[in-house]
Amino acid sequence: MDKVFNRLRNLDAYPKVNEDFYSRTLAGGVVTVVSAAVMLFLFFSELNLYLYTVTESTLLVDTSRGDTLHINFDVTFPAVRCSILSLDAMDISGEQHLDIRHNIVKKRIDANGNVVEERKDGIGAPKIERPLQKHGGRLGHDEKYCGSCFGAEESDEHCCNSCEEVREAYRKKGWGLTNMDLIDQCQREGYVQRVKDEEGEGCNIQGSLEVNKVAGNFHFATGKSFLQSAIFLADLLALQDNHYNISHRINKLSFGHHFPGLVNPLDGVKWVQGPTHGMYQYFIKVVPTIYTDIRGRVIHSNQYSVTEHFKSSELGVAVPGVFFFYDISPIKVNFKEEHIPFLHFLTNICAIIGGVFTVAGIIDSSIYYGQRTIKKKMELGKYR
Length: 384
Description:
By secondary structure, this protein is α+β, with helices and mostly antiparallel strands. The protein folds into 3 domains: 17-53 and 340-380; 54-111 and 204-338, Acid-sensing ion channels like fold, CATH 2.60.470; 124-199, no CATH class. It has helices at residues 2-10, 26-51, 163-173, 184-189, 191-197, 342-383; strands at 54-61, 68-77, 85-91, 96-97, 104-109, 115-120, 202-212, 216-222, 224-228, 231-235, 248-255, 269-271, 278-292, 298-312, 321-328, 331-338. 22% of the residues are buried.
């Protein structure tokens, strides 16, 4: 057994030196203090880096199919009344959503930006005694109401019981209303008067859309849109004005849920209309993004880039409004939060300690032997 211990003793890479042979110097003490401070600084720097999460990004081809795109928006129009501001959406698959009212909130604002009224869009018309019937007479006793569509009926049983339903029937026919005061439903709902009451006001419109994940567009137009000869025009009724001021401020525009580090380039963007009128266009490239945090929680969202263009009405047909044309990138970005591996952290700590000790030892030895050399030269000079 003693032979085994002796062999292990001979393998000792750290031979011990008797304390009687130690020589401690002032320079060595200074080097020790400085090296200890450097080691502590590097240790805490490495510890902070280890505790801090690192986000790794990878690019993949997006192979998902049949998904939907969630759009969140909050836009303010200082010079467009809420009653004539409409939201439409369509995509290249042919799906259209005109005059969207679901999940939409409109806020009337005055010239100073103060909220006058807030209401969800699509609220029904007020009830009125004995409205005009489809047959031309007034509603009789125990008679079910069926309002006239004023020539835009799709069938004999088709009824238009509100001003919006009349406008919708005309939109489907591709017609434009010329005088809303002649429409009984609009007259009893006070639609024209409501629009006139909002003169000089602006509108803040906010909400969300759920659309197909294909290229398309959504837009805020001044009036109820209808499709005619494949061109979207504005049914601005008797209140038609080709010189609407579409100055606007985009308070928020995002495609999907928020995740750490997400930057939406259109948030806070403001545009003021000049002397010419027309439509303002945003061309958006949407990049699907998946974010996985350190706890493994996955967030499906999107980033986007954008370019802008103003199309003047002097160059042709340009409906007053703000249009957002979006396209989907085929490349998907994956973000994943990660910690530096513990073994990597341990390796760096050992490297710090060993490296500082080695460098400090070299410096201390250089100082020590330099001092000895100078001392010897001085002693030799005395003897001579």
